Amino acid sequence: MAPIIRDRQFTDSSALTDFVINRGNGVKGLSEMGLKALPKPYIQPLEERLCMTKFVPQQSIPIIDMSYWKNPRVASAVCDAAEKWGFFQIVNHDVPIEVLNNVKDATYRFFDLPADQKNKYSKENSASKNVRFGTSFSPEAEKSLEWKDYLSLFFVSEEEASMLWPPVCREQVLDYIRRTEVVIKKLLQMLMEGINVKEIDEAKRSLLMGSIRTNLNYYPICPDPELTVGVGRHSDVSTLTILLQDEIGGLYVRGNQGDGDNWIHVPPIKGSLVINVGDALQILSNNRYKSVEHRVIANGTKNRISVPIFVNPKPTDIIGPLVEVLKNGEKPIYKQVLYSDYVKHFFRKAHDGKKTVEFAEI
Ligand SMILES: CC(C)(COP(=O)(O)OP(=O)(O)OC[C@H]1O[C@@H](n2cnc3c(N)ncnc32)[C@H](O)[C@@H]1OP(=O)(O)O)[C@@H](O)C(=O)NCCC(=O)NCCSC(=O)/C=C/c1ccc(O)c(O)c1
Ligand SMILES: O=C(O)CCC(=O)C(=O)O
Ligand SMILES: [Fe+2]
C-alpha cells in the first residue's frame, strides 16, 4: 500500500514510520520525495540544535603528520591530542587514497540501491545481527529522530563477510579495514606507551582492538536543516574511531575552552582520517585519554557520507582501568564492566552526550 501522503507531507506518524523504517526507504527516501517541510518527529528541541553562536571558527583540532611516525614527536603529539582534545586528524598515514575513494563510492552504491534491497539488511530482515541497515540511532528510544541512515557491519571473519555483507560494498569495506589496521596498531602503540604500557600482548590486543565495526553513514539533503541533527551529541563507545568523511563537512567536536558549550568544526582535508578516543579507552586509561562529545549537523543542499571504523574491545572482554595506570597509587574511577553490557546500554537509549560512561563509574 502506498504511504499516506498529503501535499508532500505525511498525515500521521505511523505512516511515516511505515515508509521510513518498515519499508526501508530511510530518510533518503523522505529527502528524495521533495518534502516541503521537515516532518515533526525529526524536529529536535531547541537545546539540541547547534546554533551559530556556539561555533568557534578560530579553533581547530590538531592535525598530525604521520610520515615520520617513528619520531617521538609524533607519539607525543598523538598522546597530547588524545588527552586534551580526544580528537585529531592524521595525514600521510599510508592508507592509499584509492582505498578511501573506493569505500566512499561503495557507500553511495549501497544507499543508491532500491529500498527493498537495502531493507533485506534491516533489524527485522537481516540474516545476521552483525549486519544492520537502519535509520536515526535508536528510533524506539528517541523522542526526536536523527536525519541519518546507516549500514552497520560487525566484522567476524572474511568468510562471514563474503556470505553476509552486501556485495556492492563488501570488498571495498574489507580493504578499508585491512589497510587501516596498520595505522590503528601504530596509534595504539603510541597511546599505550604514553600510559606506561610497554607491550601490547594478546590480552591487551583484545581489549584495545578485539572487535571492529564499520558503519556507512548517509545524511541526505534535509528540508529545514537547522531544526534537526544528522547525529546528536554523543561520545563513541569504542577504544578508537577512525573516521573517513567526504568533502561536505558538518562534524563538530565539543571544545575544551570556558564552559565547554563551544563547538569546533572538523574541516574535511583530502586524504585525511579523523581519529577520536572512545569511552573504552577513556575507561582503560582511567581518564587520561578523553572521549569527547561530537555531533553532525544536517545539510540543506548536499548529501553527505561518512565511514567510521569503530575499534573496540571484544564483546566478552571485561573493561576497567589498566593495572599499569593504577600502579602509582592512582584511584580507579571506573569499575570492571562486561563490554557487551556497556554497548547494549549505549544502543538502548537515545544519544545523550557523555552520559553512557556513567554506567561504568564507581
Ligand atoms: C552490539 C552488541 C551489544 C549487540 O549484541 P547482541 O547480543 O546482538 O544484542 P542485541 O540485543 O541484538 O542488541 C542490543 C541493542 O542494541 C541495538 N543494536 C545492535 N546493533 C546496533 C547497531 N549497529 N546500531 C544501532 N543499534 C544497534 C539493538 O537494536 C538492541 O536494542 P533493542 O532492540 O533491545 O532496543 C554486541 O555485538 C557487542 O557487544 N559488540 C561490541 C562491539 C561493538 O559493536 N561496539 C560498538 C562500537 S559502535 C560505536 O562506538 C559507536 C556507534 C555509533 C555512534 C553514533 C551513531 O549515531 C551510531 O549510529 C553508532
Ligand atoms: O558522520 C560523522 O562525521 C560522524 C559520525 C559519528 O559520530 C558516528 O557515527 O559515531
Ligand atoms: Fe561518533
Automatic annotation (TrEMBL):
Residues making up the signal peptide according to the UniProt record: none
Pathway(s): Phenylpropanoid metabolism
InterPro entries tied to this protein: DIOX_N, IPNS-like_FE2OG_OXY, IPNS-like_sf, Oxoglu/Fe-dep_dioxygenase_dom
Any GO molecular function: metal ion binding
Catalytic reaction(s) noted: (E)-4-coumaroyl-CoA + 2-oxoglutarate + O2 = (E)-2,4-dihydroxycinnamoyl-CoA + succinate + CO2; (E)-feruloyl-CoA + 2-oxoglutarate + O2 = (E)-6-hydroxyferuloyl-CoA + succinate + CO2
BP GO annotations: coumarin biosynthetic process
Family (UniProt): Belongs to the iron/ascorbate-dependent oxidoreductase family.
Fe2OG dioxygenase domain: residues covered: 205-313
Keywords, sorted A to Z: Dioxygenase, Iron, Metal-binding, Oxidoreductase
Top-rank taxon, per record: Eukaryota
Cofactor(s) recorded in Swiss-Prot or TrEMBL: L-ascorbate
Name by which UniProt lists this protein: Fe2OG dioxygenase domain-containing protein
Organism classification: Eukaryota, Viridiplantae, Streptophyta, Embryophyta, Tracheophyta
